[in-house]
Specification:
mainly alpha, 22 helices, 4-stranded mixed beta sheet, globular, single chain
């Protein structure tokens, strides 16, 4: 009965958010409460939910102050040089932008913290995606895939949990998995290439054209006269084009056979047919800037260019202390935020303005974390998570015993999605390891197999940092899951095959 109730709760929850019947915040609260009442746990639900909220409270605090900290860094202009560098490297090519997103995520992921990775990467890349009209789902997909592969780093969490649960050295799990991890990295870059080609085919290659001073001034005057009216988004193909507005922008005046697009910030896009399927789009900068290199991530009014090295050293120090675990993450980000806002905005009114400016980013993420605490609290308090684990273990037929290493790798994909990492690594993996020992499969080998599912794990509604990613990318959680799930599963399977080929996960054990 409890097993059926547990599976039903998870299925109903996923159905409601993926079909957009309910927002994730509401579903995380109401669905577990409803199933808890149906299961007869009504009198105990209060303490269960409170326990779950307490369990996730440090994560909520960490995310709140991490968002505020990196928000201050964005306002101060710390990431402007990164955006300019990427602009020069990718040169308006959607394919290069998507591959660059994956590469940047991998570099930042070396700190082992998903929330930090998402905040830095999205802050740097989102302006490019928005300016070129690229899909934010593609951005979130690539960031999550890269983060999932790097989530097996020893300081990332899952590998350390597996080592602790199995009583083996963390190096015995991670080091042999490095070749499989490299293969996973190559696969993510390949996926980024495929998705980037699709975006390039859809949008074309964008030329970022600088505006001449006179044209910029003329455009600014024209814009003021038009009361900043938005440019109508309309495509033309084979028809006479309206020329005056674009001429005032100092850009290319389209002729028959070209396509013209408007942009809400005053930029003009002109797609010129250039033979074959390849399109080259010439994009003029907004009239506020005279060169596309002047594009900023934050508001120029809040930028602190003279403090960029101070902010860089502060952020670098934060990352080092994060990796070395000098203090708990929530405490580190609280202290870093307080120092950052004091240095960059010493005036109290400015501090209040900056906090208020980022409150809208903080509230949706933190509220989802505490709502997830109710889901986790009821799932664990009612022992539904144990029922799910037991049902799967009992369902493994005897003939699969010698292949338990592969089975563990495959089970890690759905298990780390439906239940928390703690529940999987401390509740299920030790049981699988005991059963596998009969066939000569070591605990370290089971530990390696158990971290295979991490690319899929990051799509779980139980992962707090995922809400941060979708919130910053301004996409729906269910849309992100639908778009990314198959790619995430493919990444896990590729890593599993690579581990089998390298021999770090045995294909078959031998009964002792």
């Amino acid at each position: 009965m409890l097993t059926v109730l547990a599976y039903s709760m998870v299925v109903v929850f996923m159905f409601l958010i993926m079909t957009k019947r309910l927002p994730a915040l509401v579903a995380l609260i109401l669905v577990p409460v409803l199933f808890g009442v149906i299961g007869g746990f009504a009198p105990e639900l209060g303490p269960m939910m409170l326990a779950g909220i307490k369990q996730l409270a440090p994560t909520g605090v960490m995310l709140m102050f991490a968002i505020l900290y990196f928000g201050i860094m964005i306002d101060a202009g710390l990431f402007d040089p990164v955006v300019k560098l990427i602009l020069k490297l990718v040169k308006g090519d959607p394919l290069k932008i998507v591959v660059g997103t994956a590469a940047l995520t991998m570099i930042v992921s070396l700190d082992g913290d998903g929330a930090t990775t998402y905040m830095i990467t999205v802050s740097a890349m989102l302006p490019l995606y928005q300016r070129l009209g690229m899909s934010r789902l593609v951005m979130a997909c690539v960031i999550m895939l890269a983060g999932g592969v790097f989530n097996i780093l020893p300081w990332g969490g899952p590998t350390a949990r597996a080592a602790s649960a199995l009583g083996v050295d963390v190096g015995h799990i991670f080091v042999p998995m490095i070749p499989a991890m490299i293969v996973g990295v190559c696969w993510v870059l390949f996926v980024a290439y495929v998705l980037g080609r699709k975006e390039r085919k859809r949008l074309g290659v964008v030329d970022l054209l600088p505006l001449k001073s006179k044209a910029a001034k003329a455009a600014k005057v024209a814009k003021e006269e038009q009361d900043a009216a938005p440019v109508p988004q309309k495509a033309y193909a084979g028809f006479e084009q309206p020329r005056q507005a674009n001429a005032a922008m100092g850009g290319y005046t389209p002729s028959n056979g070209d396509m013209q697009f408007g942009h809400s910030d005053g930029a003009r896009f002109v797609a010129r047919r250039s033979g074959g399927d390849r399109k080259v789009i010439h994009m003029n900068c907004p009239p506020e800037v005279e060169n596309c290199d002047d594009i900023k991530v934050g508001d120029p009014k809040t930028a602190r260019p003279k403090l960029i090295w101070v902010n860089f050293l502060l952020t670098l120090g934060l990352m080092v202390m994060l990796v070395l675990a000098v203090l708990p993450l929530p405490v580190l980000f609280m202290i870093a935020f307080a120092v950052a806002i004091m240095i960059n905005y010493p005036n109290m009114e400015e501090q209040k303005e900056r906090i208020a400016a980022h409150a809208g980013n903080v509230l949706p993420v933190v509220s989802l974390i505490f709502a997830a605490g109710i889901f986790v609290g009821i799932l664990q308090g009612t022992k539904m998570v144990d029922a799910i684990a037991a049902s799967v273990i009992y369902a493994i037929p005897e003939w699969m015993g010698p292949h338990l290493a592969i089975v563990t790798g495959l089970l890690s994909i759905p298990f780390t999605f439906f239940i928390s990492n703690d529940a999987f690594y401390f509740g299920i993996v030790p049981i699988l390891a005991k059963a596998a020992a009969v066939y000569g499969i070591t605990g370290a080998e089971i530990g390696r197999a158990s971290i295979i599912g991490q690319p899929v794990h990051l799509l779980s509604p139980l992962v707090a940092s995922t809400y941060l990613l979708v919130g910053m990318a301004k996409i729906e959680f269910g849309d992100h899951q639908r778009y990314t799930l198959l790619w995430a599963i493919s990444a896990s399977l590729v890593m599993l095959v690579a581990a089998l080929v390298c021999g770090v996960i045995p294909f078959m054990g031998v009964a002792s």
